[in-house]
Write a structure and sequence with these properties.
The complex is a heterodimer of chains A (254) and B (86).
Chain A: E1 4-7, E2 13-24, E3 27-33, E4 45-51, E5 57-63, E6 73-77, H1 85-91, E7 97-104, E8 118-123, H2 127-140, E9 146-152, H3 161-165, E10 171-177, H4 194-200, E11 217-222, H5 224-237, E12 244-248
Chain B: E1 9-10, H1 15-22, E2 30-33, E3 39-41, E4 46-48, E5 53-57, E6 64-71, E7 74-78, E8 82-85
The chains are: A alpha/beta (254), B mainly beta (86).
Chain lengths: 254, 86
């Protein structure tokens, strides 16, 4: 296929920061007010662009944390050498403005019609788009059964902890804490591996029906190494690649 | 499909860039590698962001499928490595 040159289209919009909520020591959720926001699907992201006084611009993608129908919010983890996240986690205040573009994505999304059962696999801030899916399911009154396997470094690093402590009916949340565990912790305390997947994942034949669209549907999001481990473990467990949707954040923040 | 090394992104990361260039959502679009013929959704391709431009490679044979370079508000798009994108 040939190439071409394209003038940048006017897709950036001004967003105003509303509320700011601390999720962990390194993670905050910002609600963003965007005039004429078209709405989004669960699992999508937005690009955020910051412009310095000298005109230098930096942009990064952030997953949408809120459910479709809820006001737009993003959850951001601070990357110490990041160009955008330290501003969002340390400095942004209510009333501040930035540019956003989106919503973006048509692959890593879940709609109620996609069915399930759902297997959600999160590494660190990879929980964010999966949380949008969980809230979407709850708002719809969906009864699709869900298992969430969530890998964090420690209990203090668990994002949306109070929300995940009280899951909706039909949602099971399984944590693994890879570096540090609270006293008396009886859950998983290692990185996700093949054995953990085989203990946690829905059996391949779970769920109603048969045919190409049947069987459990898996969404894995997190650092690239996490997603690669999880995806290959699911394939080895018998999942079909077309029932595994992945989104990689690159290097982990630590 | 080859596993990606840590730090490498996937096609979800260029959803905004492709939305800008093509005017429509492309992460679920289906690409065919012009080298090995592998068929993948854009979201599954390997994406290398650091450097002057954005390089997108086949997960099966590592062929360069797409290159995006931006200069002075203009994005140059090279799709030479693709057999098709739909």
């Amino acid at each position: 296929m040939a190439g071409t040159a394209v003038r940048g289209r006017l897709t950036w919009q001004t967003a105003t920061v509303g509320s700011v909520v601390s999720e962990t020591a390194r993670v905050r959720t910002l609600s963003l007010s965007v005039p004429d926001w078209a709405g989004h699907r669960a699992g999508q992201h937005v690009d955020v662009r910051l412009t310095a006084e000298d005109g230098y611009q930096a942009e990064r993608a952030y997953s949408i944390a809120s459910a479709p129908g809820e006001p737009l919010s993003i959850t951001v983890e601070r990357l110490d050498d990041g160009e955008v996240s330290p501003y969002l986690t340390d400095e942004a205040r209510a009333g501040d403005q930035m540019e956003v573009r989106g919503p973006i994505g048509g692959y890593f999304v879940w709609d109620a019609l996609d069915g399930g059962p759902l297997l959600l696999l999160a590494g660190g801030s990879g929980i964010v788009p999966l949380r949008s899916m969980l809230r979407h399911r709850e708002r719809l009154g969906s009864t699709v059964p869900v298992r969430l396997l969530y890998s964090s470094r420690s209990w203090a690093d668990v994002i949306y902890r109070s929300e995940l402590d009280q899951p909706s009916d039909g949602v099971a949340v399984i944590h693994t804490l890879t570096r540090q565990q609270p006293p008396g912790w009886t859950g998983y305390a290692r990185r996700v591996d093949q054995r953990m997947i085989s203990e946690v994942a829905w059996p391949v034949d779970a769920g109603p029906g048969a045919g190409p669209g049947a069987g459990p549907l898996a969404y894995a999001c997190g650092p690239t190494s996490f997603v690669e481990t999880v995806a290959s473990a699911l394939v080895a467990f018998g999942y079909q690649t077309r029932r595994i949707r992945t989104e990689r954040f690159g290097a982990s923040g630590q | 499909m080859e596993p990606l090394e840590n730090g490498v992104l996937d096609g979800n990361a260029i959803g905004g860039l492709m939305l800008e260039v093509f005017g429509t959502e492309m992460t679920a679009a289906v690409s065919t590698c012009g080298g090995c013929g592998a068929i993948s959704q854009v979201a599954e391709l390997a994406v290398y962001l650091p450097g002057l431009g954005t390089v997108v490679r086949c997960r099966h044979c590592d062929r360069v499928l797409m290159v995006f370079v931006r200069a002075r508000g203009v994005t140059c798009v090279d799709l030479w490595g693709l057999a098709s994108l739909a």
